[in-house]
Amino acid sequence: MPLSPNSIGLFTGTVLLGSDIPARYRHDRSGHVPSGAPEALVSAANVDDVRHAVRLAADSGWSVVVRGAGSGLAGAAAAGAGALVLDVSGLDQILEIATSDELAVVQPGVSAAVLDTEAHRHGLRYTPDPASTAISTIGGNIATNAGGLRCVKYGVTGDSVLGLTVVLADGELLHTGRRTAKGVAGFDLTSLFVGSEGTLGVIVAATVRLQPVPVDTVTVAAYFADIEQAAAACAAVLTARVRPAMLELLDEASLREAQNLLGVRAEAAGAFVVAQTDGFGARAEADRIAETFGRVTARVRVGTDAEAAHELLAVRRAALPALERHGRVLIEDIAVPRSRIAEAARKITEIAARHDSRIYTFGHAGDGNLHPIIVVPTDDPDAHPRAVAAADEIFATALELGGTITGEHGIGVLKRDWLACELGPRALRVQLAVRRALDPNALFNPGKAV
Amino acid sequence: MPLSPNSIGLFTGTVLLGSDIPARYRHDRSGHVPSGAPEALVSAANVDDVRHAVRLAADSGWSVVVRGAGSGLAGAAAAGAGALVLDVSGLDQILEIATSDELAVVQPGVSAAVLDTEAHRHGLRYTPDPASTAISTIGGNIATNAGGLRCVKYGVTGDSVLGLTVVLADGELLHTGRRTAKGVAGFDLTSLFVGSEGTLGVIVAATVRLQPVPVDTVTVAAYFADIEQAAAACAAVLTARVRPAMLELLDEASLREAQNLLGVRAEAAGAFVVAQTDGFGARAEADRIAETFGRVTARVRVGTDAEAAHELLAVRRAALPALERHGRVLIEDIAVPRSRIAEAARKITEIAARHDSRIYTFGHAGDGNLHPIIVVPTDDPDAHPRAVAAADEIFATALELGGTITGEHGIGVLKRDWLACELGPRALRVQLAVRRALDPNALFNPGKAV
Lengths: 450, 450
Ligand SMILES: Cc1cc2nc3c(=O)[nH]c(=O)nc-3n(C[C@H](O)[C@H](O)[C@H](O)COP(=O)(O)OP(=O)(O)OC[C@H]3O[C@@H](n4cnc5c(N)ncnc54)[C@H](O)[C@@H]3O)c2cc1C
Ligand SMILES: Cc1cc2nc3c(=O)[nH]c(=O)nc-3n(C[C@H](O)[C@H](O)[C@H](O)COP(=O)(O)OP(=O)(O)OC[C@H]3O[C@@H](n4cnc5c(N)ncnc54)[C@H](O)[C@@H]3O)c2cc1C
Known about the structure:
homodimer; Uridine Diphospho-n-acetylenolpyruvylglucosamine Reductase, domain 2; Alpha-Beta Plaits; FAD (chains A, B); flavoprotein (chains A, B)
């Protein structure tokens, strides 16, 4: 359907149609590319553009695929035939930082990294810290309920969201939540939009919690004989009543690759753990961690300044880039009850052997959230189907161990079939009923998420 | 409609009809009594009883009023004509405590106090602590998203809920959430049921987070010249990057009454603040609080053991019982952005004068959550309408200051009209659409909450 000059004239931002739309708008960072190409791309310059775009899509019989930075790993922002891509990354203003109320009001295109930097000027910080913090938008982080390293103490993205402004399927604005720390007036619609992967509406503003910058931060790292020993040491830290702000685990294979990338002398070990503590008790907590680790390994390092922290964390940061050198990577994302971490990691190693695949596992031990990374060498045409079979077994294992098929990356298109396994038919029906209540004509991201 | 022996025979628990139902099932602790009396009372002995009761009500054209301990303050559990009261307080088993996963699975009739005591046996605790912890049920706490003293550090009840089992309007079971710390598979239905005041389904089991018992706890109390000085001192504590586990404020009038009840020498002061810190940094944080308070008042006390804590907290605990001696009390519950606490308290004093009412204000300063208590002397017949008018002005003030009409007690029947003011027509429509999606025939608590 050709757009009338009238409807184009409504927009302040740019509108591109058909083949003028750059190819990158078809996919996110999962690699999934849907069939067909989107019909229209609206790069919104303001909230009215968002409202017009939603109405335009409804009038044109198109669906709306909201897009932040396209860094998603589940194909949730992928857009094919029949879709209007609504790019909100240009709505990138921090509207307010209220220091004494410890909150900020932001547009969805702001990145968490920029918000955090700005908050620091006020002695505050924004705690959610996905590894993609600089290459994703806060709107996308909210729509996927992104996790990160600090969740074990500070919670996931949703735990920092107080309220939202959303453009609904009829183009109208909805305000959810509040500016107060607490409040119970009506159902918690804010949490419903958090993690909804663009299926319920377009987030055009968010009120988010900020927290004081901690007075002190200490980092502790240690090498262990094997994954069982490392997981047990992590459990012992929590039993010792320590609340680490970070508790990360690397298996033997990913540790080796990360050390190679960094060019550091490879310290052979069966597993690596890096923890961070912060706040007034940071040193006492770090001492307790070092002592706990020290009971099973002699190779414990403690860093009390930013430079040492940087060094001790380098291996964790290098893990993914190190693997990306070896081919395409499937970045998986399961969570299990914390007591099952070692079992999960061990089973993943077995799955890798069974499917002749290279799988490296690291992740957020404090939350039981593991990222098995399947490396798919580009020169082996059979590697991809083997990798997919291995991934399926990993999801099955997560469910068997009482866990979930996705700790933080979401369902998107890639895990739709598995969602039905995790939720069961009854819960899926209720999920769909809620979706229909908000988007009766299935305008937003049809075929994605639930 | 007379019940057939068949339907009665289905129940393991007791069923009472019409005039056999004790009068106390008509109301909760708000004092609100609806017109008419309930038709039936089912005291459920197991989950099947709950399912049968829901179906029985649907078949009989009755509504379902779920009841925990009836300690609510908004009339949400009040039951009048046409209602089947479904009392789930008898489902009071702790089903599991998983120490290394730091979680418990409980039935809804367990009290938070009992769960907390049991968790302590495992070195853990259940952090949500409404003042009614021993006289309410955890199901009711979840259904109202109850707050308490520790929210400022540990969050409200909902922040401790990982997953729920709910009986829906068709009598079927729905499982929401998970046992893992994180997870993003599908919409967050758990948060939708939290705070839903019995309008979406019957919570028959909950998986809740436990936390380690802190290694140390320190209490700091101080007397201030006036409410402005006290509120400023609370703000300064937070700016000093302290994360207190409790930060409570009493105004002059409630302080005086509490001291009278306790029979302690009344320390004249314009306001009283009591804070608690916990964890590895407890002492350092308490020192910082004492130092911060010490800049404006010489009357600061620090207590490092349980006995001292008990003594310093006694005044806060005595505030409500002290007021209940003077007549009926309307326990109000607003929240404002933290920076507006002093302004709110000051305006409440003005409202009291304007309406010739006695209003005492105390509450959770760390969350901006204030409880203005309106004492209605029983010997003054005009006092009640004046109190209601004053309450209305308090709600209006909360909204004017960017706050909410309820921080933790909920909407129930008493604040329905005010809910529309807070949410606006658009949000109310969306809320109702969600409610209809889950309960299309308005079986659960019709006319209550949203
Ligand atoms: C190197 C790398 C590291 C990563 N690390 C992490 C990590 O540590 N933790 C983690 O959780 N994820 C991680 N991710 C995944 C990804 O970055 C996150 O999911 C991120 O939140 C997506 O944000 P985005 O702006 O790129 O969203 P997009 O990919 O553009 O969109 C993601 C979903 O959100 C929806 N959406 C986007 N904006 C809005 C809006 N304003 N309103 C409504 N819906 C919207 C889209 O429709 C889509 O469904 C990583 C990705 C990469 C490439
Ligand atoms: C002295 C006193 C102090 C209080 N202090 C606090 C406080 O500090 N913080 C606070 O937040 N509140 C407080 N309250 C209010 C009240 O105790 C809480 O709202 C409590 O959570 C209610 O629990 P209950 O079991 O008594 O629920 P009820 O009063 O029986 O019911 C409350 C609501 O929850 C619903 N409900 C109950 N159980 C279920 C279930 N299993 N499934 C679905 N819906 C259900 C009911 O239908 C109703 O809508 C206080 C009350 C009193 C009397």
